[in-house]
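Hey, can you fold this one?
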Amino acid sequence: MRIVETSDPVETESVGAELAAGLADGDVVLVSGELGSGKTTLVRGAAHALGVSGPVTSPSFSIGHRYAGRGVTVAHVDLYRVEGLEHEEPALLADYTGPGRIAFVEWPQHAGAELAGARVRVVLAHRGLDDPAAHEHPGHATRLLSMIDGLLERSGVGWRQLERVAVGLGPGRFTGLRVGVATARGLAQSLSIELAGVSSLHALAASALRTGSSEHERVLAVIDALRGEVFAAGYALSAGRAMPMGTFAGALEPEELAARVARAGREEQASAASPMAGDGGWLGVGDGAVRYRAQLEAAGVVVPPDRSPLHALDGGAICELGAMASPAPRYEELLPDYRRTPDVARSGSTARSEPLAAGAGAPR
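Sure. Predicted structure:
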């Protein structure tokens, strides 16, 4: 796998031209990426390098275009508006692929298994204005795919052996969520495999309940939302799994979270003991619990030492929860959980929430 970053359409076309130099008669190139990520721009650069002299435009409204190249027909197919090939003419793709042609197929996931034998796959991800450049912190946008590639290599697992991609949806910081979800969607699309999203708060709690102290059967997962606020949710251990007890729809001040936890504790003491209450109270985990330790501990929450691994979001927990979750019906339907109310709507609005209470529901 090779990863290249471009900063404008000219550079993206140059990458396409470089790609074309390694193609042969009969090759099919699968080009995946979200709307506006540069798929047609890359194909244009490749087509011109293959001898196409006229304009190369998106074939979204006609399924495909064919162009005369140097000794080969260059085909450009766009399946964005195709729900699946089972309802199309059997020879739909045959008009664009095969001997004497080099085909570029956008939105290849809509073709199902028809293109499983393609030799070349390209995934494009758009780096928006909110995403730092490669030389700036955090730089994950350009390193993430290579990190995944290295992890698979160390594990002895090939890309084609993957069956599903799981990704943490947040809540969290805008850039990290956008980059992570966009990368996961691009990978799933290019490999034509399932995609599942997992709450980052749920993953934090699941990891803590699995590896934390046995004295605690309830976890308060707290993520620093900046601006003096946190994202939080409560989970309880039930049948070996972290089950949600209460969550908050938006960001809230740590003092408010501590007050709600303390109030829930008083109400619990005044009522009959809950079968899920546990004897150890709440265990607070996450960078938000570390930052606002004083407020949470004053409410009776036990917060592990700052450097405890319980505060880290564990990729293994995301994979485990992702394996149990229902896959997204369509890749584009999987969206980050930004949760915070936009700045323009913050005045006069109140974040809705569910109170922290004993009881188990469906995993989220």
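Confidence is low (pLDDT under 50) at residues 128-138, 273-279, 342-355, 357-364. Let me know if you want another pass with a different chain boundary.
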